[in-house]
Amino acid sequence: MALSSRAHAFSVESLVGKSPKRKGDHTEKEKIMNEASGLLCEKKTDRSAAATESGEWRKKRKSDTGMCKAVCSDSEKDVQVELQGLDLWKRFHEIGTEMIITKAGRRMFPSVRVKVKDLDPFKQYYIAMDIIPVDSKRYRYVYHSSQWMVAGNTDHSCITPRLYIHPDSPCSGETWMRQVISFDRVKLTNNEMDDKGHIILQSMHKYKPRVHVIVHSAKLDLAQIHSLPDEGVKTFIFKETEFTTVTAYQNQQITKLKIDRNPFAKGFRDPGRNRGVLDGILETYPWRSPLSLDLKHFGLEAQGNLGTSSPLSCGTPPSISGLPSSPCSFGLPCSNTSLHSLTIPLSYKLYSPSLGGSHPFSPADHDRLQESGSVGVQVLADFPFLESFSIPQLRDKKKGVDCKGPCIQELPGPTQHLYLRWMHEAGSAGLPASQLRQDSCSLLPHYSLCNYDLSMASRLSSMTRHFKLAEAMPLTPREGQLCHKLWNSPTYHLL
Amino acid sequence: MALSSRAHAFSVESLVGKSPKRKGDHTEKEKIMNEASGLLCEKKTDRSAAATESGEWRKKRKSDTGMCKAVCSDSEKDVQVELQGLDLWKRFHEIGTEMIITKAGRRMFPSVRVKVKDLDPFKQYYIAMDIIPVDSKRYRYVYHSSQWMVAGNTDHSCITPRLYIHPDSPCSGETWMRQVISFDRVKLTNNEMDDKGHIILQSMHKYKPRVHVIVHSAKLDLAQIHSLPDEGVKTFIFKETEFTTVTAYQNQQITKLKIDRNPFAKGFRDPGRNRGVLDGILETYPWRSPLSLDLKHFGLEAQGNLGTSSPLSCGTPPSISGLPSSPCSFGLPCSNTSLHSLTIPLSYKLYSPSLGGSHPFSPADHDRLQESGSVGVQVLADFPFLESFSIPQLRDKKKGVDCKGPCIQELPGPTQHLYLRWMHEAGSAGLPASQLRQDSCSLLPHYSLCNYDLSMASRLSSMTRHFKLAEAMPLTPREGQLCHKLWNSPTYHLL
DNA sequence: AACTTGACACCTAGGTGTGAACCT
DNA sequence: AGGTTCACACCTAGGTGTCAAGTT
Question: For residue B319, what are the CA distances in angstroms to A94, B287, B301, B324, B331?
Fold first, then answer.
């Protein structure tokens, strides 16, 4: 994925390593907190919004259901609040959760979702959420150590956090208890003048959300509650929901996890990440096989193939974790029904990210590969100079207009080569070195002339943005931008 | 537009007439009601949901702002409720509003939107909506007379209508009065077992929505209100919001108005409807001119023109309300930038809908035309037998797969002619008979070979579905389906 | 023959991360 | 050089009328 320039700078080691953890003194302490679910229940006793986390509290854990319970001891009754989606929150928390804040307001992901128990079924309650500072520090992300460091002090004391009343409020205890109470519509903003009711936060600070259960009284009007009432409030804090505010993601692992789990970021998802590295591509994209490159031929066929689906032989779909037995069949399944739109060349090379070189896979790499025990995939894309290419499915109108020539003329000559290294997920799809040796002869570069349809092409474009460019060292932001520009320039984008 | 088979059968007369009104005894009475804004305010005195429209009420009108006010006289204070979007409601009401109901639930369009005035700013209110039967009759739409007729009796008495509480409830009078209160999330269903809280109605019946302003009392729980409380309720009815429930639109004019006004139906919209009848097409679709048809040539060029934009001369764009001065230039503006995808033939004929014949325009028609004072446009589309037509923008995969031959083979011979009559909106773009006579010689059929791009093609397909098939008598459902099938068969659809 | 249903193309509306450009 | 903003491609989610096929 084309992670942001910042995120690109995240060190390779921590990405490829088996189970990357934040380094430093905090790690052990946080782990303990996670295991303890980090629950806090406080009874509201004063008007201070940034209430201290004091007060009696007990905790209970249901790790198998992915929930955690907070029981708030009270003169009346024990109210329990369970955080939903605890597993996901913990995955983020282990890395160091970041939340984007924007001027217009950005939703949280994950969002705070709770189940409430042991309310009085017949009483009316408001349920609300706010977000308070964890400390008075300003933070800075240090790329080379992949850590958040204190960068200064901030005085939060004069700011009263905005209270987000759950839209179903007020509601009977019975009704609240029947449903999962989701705060997914909450939006975070860094705009101090915000008039849309979003929660206002400062970037590069640590915060923690709180959930409040408020007993309804006749005086309360939903439209008039802007701060917590003096009494009848129970507050719950879940340590796992702590986060650092950012305007752009700092830690690449956070970006990755967000993309993987947030449905709205599906467009940035690597289609094959949950299977063998190549499986996703192989199964998703229709290819012709065996791969062979004839750019002149391609140039001639580019238009001629429009709308046709000539019967070509299809290769055997290989998988990276179970390589094909036929020595030279690096082909992919062929879906003729979608072979009607566009002809572009594309080919793969196997590549070891730990080798550090930008060269095609060579026999000498085998030995080093055995040491590293993992392997990536290098993609070679060839871009012929196609002046009058027909692009019927042109969604990006603006870019499409600009596309007639100049953008492609950045590249000299009729054919361009772009080498990309695909960083596979650590451990998820590593190719065993032994297997690689066995089949490595079949993995040497082949060139392909392949037809595939434009919707596939657009997905491929998205997919390739998840590739890591092939450099020995982590990319600098500038490098990342440059490579992305080449790959994602208007014309290429249309591939 | 390809109105539903039912809607197709709507009689020509009522479509073309200057200001079509429903015929029958009701017309005069309804007109009075419209002018009186049809307001009703009733004070709830019993639990009967289907309350009678009795009670004291006054009315006030602000026609220039498109709103209408209801003032409910009361022991406490006058509460006023204004229907928003009154103009739109009235346009529908004049035709005879229809609302689709489905098993899954369908939104209303227009939706009920009101402004409330003179509430007690400090009191809490619920605002709710329900929909009650207008009478105990079942209705049937009679196509040849374009009228709704009583078709039987229904006993509604045992059914208590579902109450839809506005999601902002309860809320202070102050807050309610600050905003437009919209019931656009209300959904109507014909599923008697509905468990999603939608309003359950019976198809082919007449209903009227009611808006209730309910004073909050401590006893009321938002989740527990399923019927109107005994007291503290003021009810408002707007005559213009009456509608007949259908599962498919019956009156083509309703379909047309829904498509024109509902943003979600934009895909079915005729791009030129707010200008001269032809202007939209002429300005929107790139054409080559002068129109001339050479099907053999077309067949040969169909693929050859892909991706090219050969420089052809473009005709003068005429408008139906101001015909072009050049005698034979029924051409259209040419947008070469989009002439790269597909070549299809299409031509126009002027046609008088009141003549009733399916023949091309003849001199003898002129006299009759003068009497009718209005004119439609007839479209002649020619479909050559194109076996291997290139269809890059194939979104409808299912149809695309079926498209190879059989569907087009329904038509005998290499070329098919389909006559469509385009019913222009009454009064919006009528061609003066005098002007027609003057220019009628230029309106005799011409044939055209024209290139235009696929996105345009898809819109044209949508547009042509709005045409009315040229038959002397209103079409039967079967006829409508047949003609639509020809025009919209898988291959044609891609035009 | 009248009416209903369900899959569908085509929209609106809005939530994502990206990277260029900008600010400080 | 760190941090922020904005237009954007690419998604999810769901509201339209259409039509073929079904039911009554």
Answer: 68, 15, 30, 7, 11
- Residue closest to C4 C1′ by Cα: B247
Between CA A136 and CA B90 the distance in angstroms is 60
Residues 459-478 of A with CB under 7 A from strand C: 465
> B191-196: long-range contacts (C-beta < 8 A, 24 or more apart)?
B191/B103, B191/B104, B191/B105, B194/B105, B196/B105
Q: What is the mean pLDDT of residues A3-31?
A: 37
Report chain B's terminal Cα–Cα distance, integer Å: 15
Give the per-residue pLDDT at B262.
Answer: 98
pTM: 0.58
Which ipTM value was assigned to this complex? 0.59
Distance B256 CA to D19 C1' (A): 17
Answer whether any strand C atom is within 7 A of the Cβ of B458. Answer: yes
Of B303, B308, B392, the CB nearest to A340: B392
Range of A234-248, A429-443, B30-44, B447-461 with top mean pLDDT = A234-248
**Looking at this protein, which amino acid is placed at residue B149?**
M
Question: How far is Cα A117 from Cα A128, in angstroms, rounded to an integer?
Answer: 15
Bases along strand C below 7 A from a protein CB: 1-20
**Could you tell me the pLDDT band of residue A227, with boundaries at 50, 70 and 90?**
confident
Print burial letters for A407-420: b (CB count within 10 Å at least 16), e (below 16).
Answer: bbeebeeebbebbb
Selection from A167-181, A374-388, A455-469 with the highest mean pLDDT = A167-181
Q: How far is the CA of A334 from the C1' of C14 (A)?
A: 36
**Ordered DSSP codes for B102-153:** BSS-EE-SSPPEEEEES--TTSEEEEEEEEEEEEEEEEEEETTTTEEEEEEE
- Which residues does residue A212 pair with via DSSP β-bridges, in sequence order? A128, A235
Residue B237 has pLDDT above 60, yes or no: yes
Chain B contact set for A303 (CB, 8 A): 306-307
Which residues does chain A have within 8 Å of residue B218's beta carbon, measured at their own beta carbons? 218
- Least confidently predicted of A87-96, A414-423, B245-254, B459-468: A414-423
